[in-house]
Give the backbone structure.
Amino acid sequence: MAKNISEKIDELKTGVEWFYSDDFKLEDASEKYKALTTLAKDIEGDLNNLKNEIKVIEEDFSK
Amino acid sequence: MENNPQQVYTVTDFQAVCNQILETAFTGVVVEGEVASYKVNQGKYVFFDLKDDNASVGCFMMLFAQRFPLEDGMRVRVRAVPKLTNWGKFSLTVQQVQPVGEGSLKKSFELLKKKLTEEGLFDAAKKRPLPEKILKIGVISSTQAAGYADFCKILNERWGGLTVLTAHTQVQGMTAADQIIRALKYFNEHGEVDIIAVIRGGGSADDLAVFNDEALVRAIAASKIPVITGIGHEVDESLCDLAADIVASTPSNVAQMLTRDRREVIASIKADVKRINNLLNTKIDDLTEVNRNEITRIAQEIYRKIETIGADVSSQIKILAQLNPENVLARGYALVRGKATLGEDIEIETQNEFITANVKAIKEK
């Protein structure tokens, strides 16, 4: 199932934190950096294309 | 009279016919005037006169229908049905009453604010924060209002993926409060939105008076779903604002408070990626520096050891040189070989010569 924007943003946040954590390994950094760059572009695309759905309720509140 | 017969009414019938005519002629007439002789009987019946410079008419209403505090001297607008009472007195049966004019509105606002504050309706402890995740927003507004258009514009600019369900209601006038109350009830009964936004753009004090309606203020305070208000401009304060969980200054501000700005999120993501890039470069530089320092340290250690070993060798060479017999001979000493026996020859070695000598005497030392 495709991830939604919030999940992608959370994933990006976790990925960024890895670079500041004790788990950081230079050998893995390049690959992780590339993956995060791709994820960031993906999120940017999603955000720019996201639309709201605005519906007016078919209820007559004057009565 | 006998030649020209006319219908003869009983008094009761006549009064009934008059009321029928009045009801037909004035369905929900709106009359504006000043309140005089205001009083409440038995805790439920309200009587007052509505007057201007030239005329006065008696008014009657039930206390529960009175949604704004009234006092003598207040200017009000009433929606009423004219009626001829059983005692032949003409009066207005008031369905709704609303203060008009800045002075009356302010007075009514202060009276109701005091009453509801004392009841604890506006207590800070009752306020709920914005829900953490907002996916569905219930909006109560007039879809024709500029404030609603502003709200939608800002919402769409800032974020997406939200569902907005709009309850179209009047947002000013005498029927607006009841419509907004019905919309609040609708959202609370259906329970499908995360928050309810009551929005209305700027207007005069009269236009915004509906948001000081007691029943509406109570409905907002009683809502099971958190309510955010964005009514009028920043300077406007309504009792609905005081009763709401969250107050925004304008409809646009409601949209700002309910959403993140996608441009800020994108900028933040780009900044994160750039920061990681810088961090990575710094880490590589740091590790390179560490390696460089380590190599320098090892080289220095090797040089130091070589120097130590060199010095040690020099020292050994000096010791060896001191132990060389040639050096002893050079200081004037001689080396004697052979057995010290009387009459026997021995060999004497000096720095420059070998001498053969005969042992002529041996003495104890």
The interface with chain A takes residues 133, 143, 152, 155-156, 159-170, 175, 179-180, 182-183, 186, 262, 265-266, 269-270, 272-273, 275-277, 279-280, 283-284, 287 of chain B (CB under 8 Å).
